[in-house]
Specification:
This protein is of the alpha+beta class. It has a domain of 60 residues: 2-Layer Sandwich (Beta-lactamase Inhibitory Protein, Chain:B, domain 1), CATH 3.30.1450. Helices cover 28% and strands 27% of the residues. A 4-stranded antiparallel beta sheet has the order 1-2-3-4, covered by helices on one side. The longest helix has 17 residues. The protein is rod-shaped. The N and C termini lie far apart (68 Å).
Amino acid sequence: MLKILISIATVATLLSACSGIPTYRLDVQQGNAIEDSKVAQIRDGMTPEQVEFLMGSPQVLGTFIREDRWDYVYYSRPGRGPTEKRRVSVFFEGGRVARIEDTSPPAETGG
């Protein structure tokens, strides 16, 4: 009986010690890598070809509902640390850039 109790105590101790081992989490990155410098170069009046040359192919081209919109979507979840999500939408009117929507967080100002 004493051997069983010692075995149970040993197994419980070993299992509780293993719970402190950190697990490995994969980095998950999806979509287009969106660079601030390239987004800043998009100007009203640019053609779709110019935007594609600058930013690459959009993740989501215009749909049947809204054919004048391109979406560049980026999602990154590192194994450790905060998740980053970003979407840049480029709207066209008459085959030219009319406006841009960017969901990037505001830049931190040093102070």
